[in-house]
Amino acid sequence: VSVSLSADQYRVLVEHAATMIWRSGRDAACDYFNPAWLEFTGRTLEQEGGWGWVEAVHPEDVERCVESYQAHFARQAAYEMEYRLRRHDGVYRWLLDRGAPYTDETGTFAGFIGSCIDIEDRRQADRAKATFIALIAHELRTPLTAVKAYLEVIRRRLRRGDELGDVVQRLDRQVERAADFARELGDAVALEAGRPLALRLGDVDLASLVGRVVEACRRTAAERRQRLQFERPAVPVRVQADAERLTQALGSVLDNALKFSPAGGEVRVTLDRDGRDHLLTVHDAGIGIPREEIDAVTRGYYRASNAPAAHYPGVGLGLAVCKAIVERHGGRLAIASAAGAGTTVSIALPAEVVPA
Amino acid sequence: VRRLLLVDDDPGVLDALALALGERYEVVTARDGIEALDRLDGARIDVILLDLMMPVLDGPGFVRRMRAAGHQVPLMLLTASTDAEQQARELGARDYLVKPFDVDQLEAKLAHLFDPSQGGGPVPGRGGQPRTPPGGNPAASARGTHAARAPGGADARR
User: Fold this and answer.
1) Contact at 8 Å (CB) between B50 and B63?
2) Facing residues of B76 across strands?
3) What pLDDT does residue A89 have?
4) Which chain A positions have a beta carbon within 8 Å of B52's beta carbon?
5) pLDDT at residue number B149
6) Residue of A nearest to B106 (CA)
7) Predicted pLDDT at A48
8) Across the interface, which of A152, A310, A313 has its CB nearest the CB of B20?
9) Which of A12, A79, A325, B1 is the most exposed place for a label (fewest CB within 10 A)?
10) pLDDT at A220
C-alpha cells in the first residue's frame, strides 16, 4: 500500500511537529525553520535564516558542526551529528541533527532538510550512569585494598609461625563492609525493579536495637574524634519489625551523620514517643544538604552538590534504601537540613506496625 | 629505618597498610591533607603514600600546599582513580599504584625508590597493573637513580 501525503498534510506535519525541522537551499544557506525550532531558540526566522542559526551553536562545537554540514552537503550525502545549541533561556542543550538531501520537481538536487531532537536528558543520564559505575568501582576497591593488606600480614605471620593476633577480626570487618555494600546495591536493584523489600517481622526492642547500632558506630566516631550521644530509654520499646533491616537503615543514617560531620563534631540520636509513632532522630552539625536537593537525595543515585566524590566516599544509595525500609514498616522518613546547617533525619515508626 | 607518611581517609585502608608496611618501615598516618601537612612539619619523612579522594583537603590540594611550603618529599599515589597515571604525571608523583594492589608490589616499588639498584621501579604506563614483575627497566632505573638520591628529586625531574 502506498500512502502519499498532500502538500498541505506535509505542511501541517512540519509546522506542528515537536521535532525541530530546518531546510536549506542549493547554496547550503537555510531558508526555513519550523515553529518548534524557533520556539527552542527563541529567535525569529529572520535571525536564523541564511547562516544566522550558527550563532546559537556552542562555541566549542560550531567549527565541527559547520564543517561536517558543508562536507556532507558537498557530497549530497545524508548525515547525523550531535552538537549543543543555545536554548531561549540561554542554556545549551545537546541535539541530534539528521540531515538529508532533497530534490526539486525535475529531480535536481535542491538542498537539505534536517530534523533535530533534544538529547540532553539522555546524555545527562549516560553521564550519571558512568559516574555511578565509577563510584561503585571506587567503593569496592577501598575495602579490597585493606583485605589484601591484612591477608598479606596473615600470610607472613603464618610463614614465620607468629601469633595472628586480631588481624583476622580486622580483616573480617572489611569483608563485612564490602558485603554490606553489596547488599545495599542488591536492595537498590530490587527497588529499581519495583520489587518490595522482603521483611521478616519479629518482636523487636527498638531501644536496644538503636543502642546496638550506636555502639557499632563508636569505633568510627572515635577514629574521627566525634562524640556520639544516645540517651537510651529506660524501658524497652516493643515493636513488630525486621530487626536486620532496621539495623541496616539506622546504620546507614548514622554512617552519613558521621561521614558528613567535621572531625570533633557531635552526633545526637534520640528515641521518643510521638503520638502513635516512635520517633527516632539522628542529628548532626555537618555540611547539611541543600534544601532543594533533599528529595533527590532520598530518591537515590544522587549525591548532594556540596558533597563531591573527591571528598566524600559513597555512591548515593544509602538514604533511598533506608527510606524504602522505613516505608515498608509503614513508617516515614523525613529530612530537615540546609547547606552548612547540619542535618536531622527523623524516622517515624508506627507503634502498631502494619507493613505497607 | 625509612619513615613513610601514609595519607588515606579510609580508616580500614590506613590500619591495614600501616600494619603491613610497619614490619619494614616506620609508618606515620594522616587522614586528610591538613593532617598530612601537620605530620610533614613534625618529622623527617622519606616518602609520602598519597590517596587522592579525601575530605577537608584532597590529594591534589595537599600536593600544592606541600610544594608551596617548600617540602620536596617524593610522592607515590595509592588511588582507586581510573586515571591514576595521568594524575601521577600531573602531580609530579614518582610512581603510583591502583587500588587494590599487592603489598609485595608496593614494597618492591618502595625498595626501588629508596635504592634504585633494586628492581621493581616505575614501569612507564604500567605502574598500576597488578603484579608487575619486579625487574630492571633501564629507563626507569636511570630516572630513579637521579631522582631518589636528591631530596628535591620530584621537582628536579621536571
Assistant:
1) yes
2) B49, B95
3) 95
4) 310
5) 38
6) A149
7) 96
8) A152
9) B1
10) 86
A313 with B53: Cβ contact below 8 A? yes
- What are the chain A neighbours of B80 within 8 Å (beta carbons)? 137-138, 141-142, 145
Record: contact B16-A137, CB cut-off 8 A? no
How much is the ipTM here? Answer: 0.76
Q: Is the dihedral of CA A135, A137, A139, A142 positive or negative?
A: negative
CA-wise closest residue to B107 among A211, A152, A231, A128: A152
Rounded to an integer, what is the distance from CA A290 to the centroid of its chain? Answer: 15
- pTM score over 0.90: no
Query: Per-residue pLDDT for B65 more than 70?
Result: yes
Q: Which among A134, A148, A170 has CB closest to B15?
A: A170
> What pLDDT, on the 0 to 100 scale, is given for residue A353?
54
Question: For chain B, where are the E strands, in sequence order?
Answer: 3-7, 26-30, 47-50, 75-79, 95-98
- The phi, psi pair for B19, rounded to 5°, reads -65, -45
Q: Which residues of chain A, if any, have pLDDT below 50?
A: none
Length of chain B: 158
Half-sphere exposure (Cβ direction) of A50: Cα atoms closer than 13 Å? 4
d(CA A262, CA A250): 20
Check whether B130 has a pLDDT greater than 80: no
CB atoms within 10 A of CB A260: 25
DSSP, res B80 = -
What is the residue-averaged pLDDT of chain B? 79
The pLDDT of residue B153 is above 80: no
Q: Provide, as residue numbers in chain A, all residues whose Cβ is less than 8 Å from the Cβ of B82.
A: 134, 137
Chain A residues touching residue B16 (CB < 8 angstroms)? 145-150, 153, 170, 174
Question: Which residues does chain B have within 8 Å of residue A177's beta carbon, measured at their own beta carbons?
Answer: 12
Report the residue of B14, B53, B91 to disrupt the A interface, i.e. the one with the largest count of A CBs within 10 Å.
B53
Q: pLDDT band for B67, please (50, 70, 90 cuts).
A: very high
Spatial CA neighbour of A19 closest among A99, A116, A98:
A116
Q: How far apart are CA A318 and CA A251, in angstroms?
A: 10
What's CA A207's distance to the chain center, in Å? 33
Interchain CB distance below 8 Å, B58 and A156: no
Q: How far is CA A208 from CA A214, A235, A252, in A?
A: 10, 10, 17
Please name which of A236, A252, A256, A232 lies closest in space to residue A244, comparing C-alpha atoms: A252
A167 touching B (Cβ < 8 Å)? yes
- Please tell me which of the candidates A146, A153, A224 has its beta carbon nearest to residue B12: A146
For the record, the C-alpha cell of A66 comes out as 559547520
